[in-house]
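Worked Example 4.2. Read the sequence first, then its structure tokens.
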Amino acid sequence: MVWRDDAPRRRRGRQSWSGPVLLGALLLTLPLALLGCDSGGSSNGGQTNTPPPVTTPPSPAPTPNVAFVLTADPRNGVGSYSTVSLSTRNVSQDIQRGGVSSDAIARTFGGKVYVVNRLNADNIQVIDPAQGFTTPANAQVSVGNGTNPQDIAFINANKAYVSRLEKTARLLILNPTTLATLGELDLSARLKSNDRDGSPEATHMLVLNSLLYVVLQHLDNFVPIAAGEVVVIDPATDRIVTVITLPFRNPLSQLHFSATLRRILVSCVGEFGVDDGGIVAIDPSTNTLDGTLHIPEAALGGDITEFAIISSTKGVAIVSDASFNNAVITFNPSNGQRLGTLIAPASTFIPYVALNSRNEVYIAVRDLRTTTPGLRVFDAVTDRDVVPGTLSVGLLPPIWIAFVE
């Protein structure tokens, strides 16, 4: 496997490569504040109770309705971020250049953005839209030096899990409101006998039906050594409920739940450049594989590094062919049929694709051949180029998109 230097370094060994690495659902986040309520009465030692003056409670901060876009120059170790108005497409570029890692992802919940700063940064950082998309004081916490965090999944305002790729076989448990450490959940029982690095490589996560789903890649010295797994955990007890063994190695994409298909979907790439993987489905009602829904790589034209499900009959996927050219195509997730092409194959790294509530597909295009890399935006129903062309999001190429809606 050949890795490319211009790809964002998101995983140990699964970092810059000559075909796209997905920078891995789901995004999950945190309420802006916990508001108390007055009981309406009190005792004042026999004194007459005077009703408090009636005041109008402060209005909650308006939802920004933006795309939060992480940008990066991994070669020079510089990260930044910008926002794009979903209604006007106006861009606030490079809000804080150097303010995030050059290897990061973002999740949103309750109007806040949680940035997972990965290898060599190893922390969780909160960015508050109500404070001009800046990081408040004490809103950043280390998750362990060299542990290379991959994702954060929120159970509620008091509990979240952080998956870590290196130096540990444990999920970290945090209070996402205070960022205090609550404990760890041991996954060492899932280590394979030929895995010498001591980590089962926990990556993307999804919370569904009060359960936590965690992808295990099972790598050793950067090479897949066993079929991927999805561990199902009960957050109420922090115990493993079951383990789902995937039919392929190297699960790379996020875990996507499709309400129309009623399935959790994940793409396994196996070895890059070889047709040895595809999109597989998990039935969350039984937490077992659904063998009737399987989309092989060959059907879509190569390694499926990331995708989004629009409906039961339409999805969009980033595909890397045998020559590591990237393309963005549409497909029917019910039968695996390829439908069309949004971005033709080219020697351009395309790290991410995301779907918002307006039925718009945002695609991060890391084209280093141009001085204006940026986003492509398409209508999810008609495939119309909404911008059209490339939407610049600053001096650095985009690597990740999260919607604050």
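Now turn to a second chain, presented in exactly the same format:
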Amino acid sequence: MGRDTTLAGTEPAAATAGAPQDVLLEVEHLRAGYGRITAAEDIGLQVRPGELVAVLGPNGAGKSTLLRAISGMIRPWAGRVVLAGRDVTGARSDVLVRAGLVHVPEGRRVLPRLTVEENLRLGAFSARRDRAAVAAALEEVLTRFGALADRRDQKAGTLSGGEQQMLAIGRALMARPSVLLLDEPSLGLSPRLVAEVFELIQSLVAEGQTVLLAEQNVAQGLRVADRGYVLTTGRVTATGSAADLLADPALLRSYLAPPAGRPPHLSTAQPPAERTGEPPEYVKYEGRPAGTLSRNLDPPIHAPNPRRGTPGAENPS
């Protein structure tokens, strides 16, 4: 018999030793991948109510795989996912949406032939029988996103990249999530639109929305986050407060130093003040001396990358 992928009848998960009691989302020793390829290995993280926690790392680090395993898009091979005290490992995505966990995947994934309003209404599909609640959620989202309100009858495929990202986030908010997963919201956007999207994310958190953000732009992600987890080739290599991670010179050198003759990934990055002494205690490196990061930051060899033109391949980033 297969695993029950509904939450009906589930028992509260056993508390993890030393874990705070107010943790809303917890991942323990999670392992996941595609076929024979392991993309995420022994990952653990915690998200408390009202926090913005960033999962950071280069392309191929396992960020998207982690979010997909949490949200039920793929089944974890090992470990567990605990939402609001209940073990939801392996639950279907639609079940998790009803439980309050909503995933905005990489690449926006709006339905281009449907209008803005039709896309938004799909976000409230699980509550579709409560027409008053859906109408109220729709007006809240359109009030928040003025640009979408002006285009509510426009086909989603005609929107700009930034507007489509706003639409994808708005569609997720229609489900009134307790935890919002955002996968690479800055992908493919101009610096101006990136700033707008992150300003929106900050406003949501200021209003109490809990967010788990996967982001390749390390400096930008840390500037809006409360805490961060850095992934390298599928494993957590550093974790700590966003302020501490952003001030860590080893991490900044690894992720922000550009190749010779090329501009930095984030043109507005501010160099940290010089520090002396031992690295902070938050640094947790797998098998490496404290205060060092792997210098091999190229993505591991995974399945062929669809962005390089190989159809049908998975991108485990």
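Notes for the reader: Residues 1-5, 257-315 have pLDDT under 50 and may be disordered. The domain at 25-257+275-301 is CATH 3.40.50.300 (Rossmann fold).
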